[in-house]
From TrEMBL:
Residues 1-23 form the signal peptide. InterPro entries: Acid_Pase_AS, His_Pase_clade-2, His_PPase_superfam. The keyword Hydrolase applies. GO terms for molecular function: acid phosphatase activity; inositol hexakisphosphate 3-phosphatase activity. It comes from Talaromyces rugulosus. Residues 252-264 have a biased composition (Polar residues). Its EC number is 3.1.3.8. Keywords: Hydrolase, Signal. This is 3-phytase. It is an enzyme of class 3 (hydrolase). Belongs to the histidine acid phosphatase family. Residues 244-264 are annotated as: Disordered. The keyword Hydrolase applies. CDD domains: HP_HAP_like.
Amino acid sequence: MHWSSQLLLVGLAATSYAGGVGASSAIPDYFQTSFGPYAGPTKAGEAPFLAQATLLAPEYHSYKPNTPVVTDVPIFGGPKDAEIFKHMGNISPYLPNPSGFGIDEYPLPSGTNITQMHMVHRHGSRYPTSDASVATVSDRITELRGNGTNFTGDLSFLNDWTYQLGEEELTALGRQQLFDSGVLHWFNYGRLYDPSRPLISRTTTQVRMLQSAENFLNGFFGPDWTRNVTLEVITEHPGFNNSLASDKECTNHNNGKSSAGDDASTQWQEIYLEKATRRFRQSMTGNQNWTTSDTYNLQTLCPYETVALGFSHFCSLFTWDEWLGFEYANDLSYYGGNGFASPTGRAVGVGYVEELIARLQQHYPYPDENSIAINKTLDDNATTFPLNQTLYLDFSHDTNIFSILTALGLKQFAEFLPISGPPPNRQLIVSHIVPFAGRFNIEVIKAPRPVLAKRPHGSQASAYDLNGTETTYVHMLMNQRTIPLGQSIAECGQRDDGWCELQAFINVQKENIIKANFDESCFGNYSTPKYGSVSTGTV
Ligand SMILES: *[C@@H]1O[C@H](CO)[C@@H](O)[C@H](O)[C@H]1NC(C)=O
Ligand SMILES: *[C@@H]1O[C@H](CO)[C@@H](O)[C@H](O)[C@H]1NC(C)=O
Ligand SMILES: *[C@@H]1O[C@H](CO)[C@@H](O)[C@H](O)[C@H]1NC(C)=O
Ligand SMILES: *[C@@H]1O[C@H](CO)[C@@H](O)[C@H](O)[C@H]1NC(C)=O
Ligand SMILES: *[C@@H]1O[C@H](CO)[C@@H](O)[C@H](O)[C@H]1NC(C)=O
Ligand SMILES: *[C@@H]1O[C@H](CO)[C@@H](O)[C@H](O)[C@H]1NC(C)=O
Ligand SMILES: *[C@@H]1O[C@H](CO)[C@@H](O)[C@H](O)[C@H]1NC(C)=O
Ligand SMILES: *[C@@H]1O[C@H](CO)[C@@H](O)[C@H](O)[C@H]1NC(C)=O
Ligand SMILES: *[C@@H]1O[C@H](CO)[C@@H](O)[C@H](O)[C@H]1NC(C)=O
Ligand SMILES: *[C@@H]1O[C@H](CO)[C@@H](O)[C@H](O)[C@H]1NC(C)=O
Ligand SMILES: *[C@@H]1O[C@H](CO)[C@@H](O)[C@H](O)[C@H]1NC(C)=O
């Protein structure tokens, strides 16, 4: 057992945790970075062996070096450069949002400074969670083979395929994504760190959450990062309050009351996978009783095998349209489970909003009695909730991050999503929002004068309103692209750059805490709403 050397830990004697078991009692639970009682279940997967794998279908001749995984698999019916790995919802490997959120990026006018950056980062690519239905494929295929089913044609590899995935923890690709992101954030924000003022960074007790934070911090600060930052590890488990894993404390999030999104997704799967299901039935002998949900599980294996083993035979079994359908299945699930169509959509994310406002105003959070979505013990103490940092580096889960966006009132993701298929130009595309290693950044920007709302490209005119005085803004980015705050929050105004004046933003977010209706949403005794009957992210 080892405790990482948190030598800079404020308020604790450095001698008491030079490493070693005897030191453990001196370190409070929230600064212990070894895997503890709330690390959750994990299971290692098989080691990959790409160099020896039979990767290519016979008709696929071109060779491309792997990078490190193989994503350029041939897809039927797609454009020439079809990139299915950009359409896999929350199990897409990290990609910067390729199309933006409806607004251009603008440079800072000279004389304007970024003074703070608040980040929430998802963990990287992992094995399936232990309760994931994809993990049942192994038993299903074994059962079919045991009953004499032979797979033929495209499915013939299933005659001797084995399930080799682990559970819950990061894959090597997941570690790389977080390390790369740490490097990226160092380039973007390195100067906001003052080496004489060590930081607190927060994650949760789950194995992949610890692994992600550590790999990020290694990328940002280098391998001696424990000299620069103390990792705070907040308990992720039912019964504990944790703004970075609030689903665990929000009873109604887990008892079926916010399951409408998953139901909608299942109905859509019946539609877009109908043909594939018929196709697969023709590629196996015997009375297999193959279902749409079997087909969906095979499709899900493509991204999971790829991030774990480097390559998957399952990817090429599906057409381009079926991959676009897969993406939409994820969109429905998040919209109805964590977004504006979920009765707990705002509540699960509101704890972070309480903390964000506290940090922006530099005073501890004071939520009302019926809105306590944080751990007050931790958040009322400078050791565990400092208010004087310029960099706030937090780590969380996809569902929690999606709910934070809902709690922040980003109504650009509130458009109704029909079960029958995607509306044109929809904004809610999960792979653009919470892919593996997805993240948002909220920059605080101090300008000597107001920055004009209209900022025509190529204009030589000053970007400032020369009549005004010093003004502070927030600029929010999701996966490296600007979120146009004015599109969702009228008080931010229709600015070309998508920024929002700081005080206007804070005022709106204070109202959003009330709108989350935390106690009633999480603990109220209401009947499960039908898909589509909730549109405000609360009951
Ligand atoms: C396989 O055979 C067993 C025993 O006959 C039976 O209970 C089961 O339903 C069969 N499974 C499938 C998928 O046909
Ligand atoms: C499956 O293939 C094996 C070996 O080729 C053969 O012995 C068996 O009869 C086949 N079973 C079915 C149900 O076709
Ligand atoms: C981390 O802290 C050490 C010790 O104070 C310092 O020497 C080093 O420069 C810091 N790293 C960065 C990236 O600032
Ligand atoms: C709050 O955090 C403290 C310190 O980790 C912990 O002892 C306590 O159980 C937590 N309370 C809740 C309700 O999560
Ligand atoms: C196929 O599975 C469905 C759902 O489990 C079941 O209702 C049906 O009876 C099964 N059909 C056969 C032929 O086994
Ligand atoms: C945890 O959350 C519950 C529900 O909001 C609240 O009643 C309790 O005071 C919180 N505990 C702490 C330590 O913040
Ligand atoms: C804040 O946390 C530190 C470290 O755990 C502890 O020593 C101190 O007593 C706490 N302060 C208050 C006011 O609770
Ligand atoms: C915040 O204030 C505390 C107490 O004065 C100090 O120990 C710590 O270094 C400060 N942190 C930063 C990042 O300025
Ligand atoms: C931005 O930083 C520069 C250099 O530290 C400083 O001279 C300038 O006053 C700052 N601008 C604002 C608006 O604070
Ligand atoms: C600044 O003030 C002048 C004089 O009052 C006015 O003509 C001008 O429109 C103002 N500029 C802006 C950007 O408001
Ligand atoms: C919840 O409401 C239902 C319907 O009004 C009622 O039958 C049930 O007893 C209530 N449950 C609790 C725990 O209050």
